[in-house]
């Protein structure tokens, strides 16, 4: 930690002058972030930033995803001012930016090269052309699978599998007596946890959250098929306690060799191929997220990004840090210290160099998935909202969390799927009416 910065000055009495030293206290930036591996790396490498800025101290608050969202939402809505830098997604950036709760990301350093950032990512973090967060990494979703297990079973993964095929593969590869499970999927309740995956499954089956008049459609044929498929497949061929597993838990299961297949964020590519943390690093295949009746909305688009709340008292220092942590300079630092395949993916065109594409076997699928994902057209049917794995309206955070709890209850067998969907339909209809929809 830096105690302060020494400043020199002079004081004169008559013809005698003394050199005086004083210590100016350093500014402390409080950074709230999620406990994902890329953010843990950012915290570790930020010592470089502190060396470059001896007048800035960094205070880290690292939280599990659901807890982080809850803390940040409470703080920003009340203008609590606990944090100077927030790790948020596209959902919060657009809604909070529109409310004036975030600082606009303007006057970036000349060497930041904002034009290098993919347009879809910039647009997802902007409101009416104004950028409100800088992307740390961006992701779509993809299928990870064990090439050795597929080969041993005499089956082949298609480049664009259907969910029906995934269930067939899961049945053949499920050997719980050997601690090997056919498929791992998110089950942990949360609008950004299980519902991110469940919504892409529903999209693939042709479902949508709301019709064009903002009426929920959970009792319709598409949601019924998707929900039954998700619950049945994970209960038959998933690991025990699947309702407790989110991204980090499934990553740990896959890396320890317990999942034959896993569908989740493309950002996991560098972790599952890292021999220091994955027992199966040399036996992983990568392909597109499964579709079913349509490919629309079958893979999500998301970005973990850094934003500055309007309530921060250290905005200049916060801007310096967010620009550094999302810069090409930071990417080069990661490549130098941890290897080029670990550079935060999905945000910059320059990341996808020949060197990176060779070092990262997951890069092609990631890049193509990011380019194909269209939040403005996420469903086979027309929708009144923007968002693939979420609905970009203020009410979605509460509604999505409630629906996520009900899906987790169906997964544990607390209620049949049809009963769960009826309950979801009723609660979502009630909340939307209370919020004044249709508007």
From TrEMBL:
Belongs to the bacterial solute-binding protein 1 family. Pfam families: SBP_bac_1. InterPro entries: Bact_solute-bd_prot1, SBP. The keyword Transferase does not apply. This is Sugar ABC transporter substrate-binding protein. It comes from Stutzerimonas azotifigens. It is found in: Periplasm. Keywords: Signal. Its main location: periplasm. Residues 1-26 form the signal peptide. It comes from the Bacteria.
């Amino acid at each position: 930690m830096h105690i302060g910065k020494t400043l020199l000055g002079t004081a004169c009495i008559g013809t005698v002058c003394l050199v005086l030293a004083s210590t100016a206290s350093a500014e402390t930036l409080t950074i709230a972030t999620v406990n994902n591996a890329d953010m843990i790396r950012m915290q570790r490498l930020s010592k470089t930033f502190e060396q470059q800025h001896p007048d800035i101290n960094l205070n880290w608050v690292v939280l599990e995803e659901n807890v982080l969202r809850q803390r940040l939402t409470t703080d920003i809505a009340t203008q609590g001012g606990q944090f100077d830098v927030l790790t948020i997604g596209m959902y919060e950036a657009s809604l909070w930016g529109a409310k004036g709760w975030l600082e606009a990301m303007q006057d970036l350093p000349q060497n930041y090269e904002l034009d290098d950032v993919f347009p879809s990512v910039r647009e997802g973090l902007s409101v009416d052309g104004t950028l409100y967060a800088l992307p740390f990494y961006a992701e779509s979703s993809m299928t990870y699978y064990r090439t050795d297990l597929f080969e041993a079973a005499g089956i082949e993964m298609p480049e664009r599998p259907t969910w029906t095929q995934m269930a067939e593969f899961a049945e053949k590869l499920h050997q719980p007596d050997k601690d090997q499970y056919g498929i791992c999927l998110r089950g942990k309740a949360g609008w950004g946890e299980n519902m991110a995956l469940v919504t892409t499954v529903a999209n693939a089956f042709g479902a949508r959250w709301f019709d064009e008049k903002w009426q929920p459609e959970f009792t319709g044929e598409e949601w019924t098929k998707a929900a039954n498929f998700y619950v049945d497949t994970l209960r038959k061929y998933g690991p025990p306690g699947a309702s407790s597993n989110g991204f980090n838990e499934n990553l740990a299961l896959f890396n320890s060799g317990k999942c034959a297949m896993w569908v989740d964020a493309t950002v996991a590519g560098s972790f599952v191929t890292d021999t220091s943390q994955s027992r199966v690093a040399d036996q992983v295949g990568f392909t597109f997220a499964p579709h079913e009746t349509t490919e629309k909305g079958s893979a999500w688009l998301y970005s973990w990004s850094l934003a500055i709340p309007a309530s921060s008292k250290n905005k200049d220092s916060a801007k310096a840090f967010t620009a550094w942590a999302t810069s090409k300079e930071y990417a080069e630092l990661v490549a130098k210290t941890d290897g080029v395949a670990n550079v935060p993916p999905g945000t910059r065109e320059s990341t996808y160099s020949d060197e990176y594409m060779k070092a990262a076997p997951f890069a092609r699928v990631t890049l193509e998935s990011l380019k194909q994902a269209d939040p403005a057209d996420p469903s086979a049917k027309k929708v009144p909202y923007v968002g693939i794995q979420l609905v970009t309206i203020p009410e979605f955070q509460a509604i999505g969390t409630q629906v996520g709890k009900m899906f987790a209850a169906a997964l544990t067998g607390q209620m049949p799927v049809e009963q769960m969907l009826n309950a979801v339909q009723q609660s979502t209809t009630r909340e939307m009416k209370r919020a004044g929809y249709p508007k």
